[in-house]
TrEMBL record:
Skewed-composition ranges (Acidic residues): 128-143
Protein name as annotated: LIM zinc-binding domain-containing protein
GO biological process, one term: neuron differentiation
PANTHER family tied to this protein: LIM HOMEOBOX TRANSCRIPTION FACTOR 1-ALPHA, LIM/HOMEOBOX PROTEIN LHX
Annotated segments matching region Disordered: 125-151
Species for this entry: Etheostoma spectabile (orangethroat darter)
Compartments it resides in: Nucleus
Keywords: DNA-binding, Homeobox, LIM domain, Metal-binding, Nucleus, Repeat, Zinc
Start and end residues of each LIM zinc-binding domain: 5-64, 66-127
Record-linked InterPro entries: LIM_Homeobox_TF, Znf_LIM
Keyword Zinc belongs to the record: yes
Molecular function terms, GO-annotated: DNA-binding transcription factor activity, RNA polymerase II-specific; metal ion binding; RNA polymerase II transcription regulatory region sequence-specific DNA binding
Stored Pfam families: LIM
GO cellular component entries: nucleus
Length: 151
């Protein structure tokens, strides 16, 4: 046993009978407190920059915010990434056409706005194209009718 254990919290020797091991460091029992609210940490604690935090404060302080709705993303939540930005699954949509982007979809992050890869050439999304298609279908039907009439 190393008798000269140094507390990772206050950096003083631990001479107490009780010491706590948190991740790789040893701590005075009384030093295992949340660096933000000062609560004693009993069940779970989170280590960041050599400071301990309770779950609530850790989530508040170091939460990753969604690039879409700017709300915190809980560590357990599924996320989508675009460059350095992280998004809720539900927020990972194109900011122009609102299409839902999938993993592996090509997308662009421009000035904090997520754009689908189609954005480059669907600036004014071609409603015309779709209408044209419908018209074509209509024409075909008419042609068939005509043909039938001819028969
Ligand atoms: Zn200490
Ligand atoms: Zn706390
Ligand atoms: Zn979001
Ligand atoms: Zn789009």
């Amino acid at each position: 046993m190393d008798q000269r254990a140094v507390c990772a919290g206050c950096h003083r020797l631990i001479t107490d009978r009780f010491l706590l091991r948190v991740t790789d460091g040893l701590w005075h029992e009384e030093c295992v407190r949340c660096a933000a609210c000062g609560d004693a940490l009993r069940n779970s604690c989170f280590l960041r920059d050599r400071k301990l935090y309770c779950k609530r404060d850790y989530a508040d302080l170091f939460a990753v915010c969604c690039g879409g709705c700017a709300e915190a993303i809980s560590p357990a939540e599924l996320v989508m990434r675009a460059g350095a930005a992280v998004f809720h699954l539900r927020c990972f949509t194109c900011s122009v056409c609102s299409c839902r982007l999938q993993t592996g979809d090509r997308c662009v992050l421009r000035e904090g706005q997520l754009l689908c890869a189609r954005e480059d050439y669907h600036q004014c999304k071609s409603v015309d194209e779709e209408e044209e298609e419908e018209e074509e279908e209509g024409e075909e039907e008419e042609e068939e009718k005509k043909r039938r009439r001819n028969l």
